[in-house]
Amino acid sequence: MSPNEISDYVTEGMKWLSIGGGTYIASLTILNGVPRLFSERINSQEDLDRIVDEEANKLSMTKSITPKFHDFWIESSIKLDGGNYEINIGGFGARRSAVRHELYHIHRGHLEHPWKKSNGFLRALNYIFREEPQAIVYEVFRLKL
Question: How many domains does the chain have?
Answer without folding.
Answer: 1
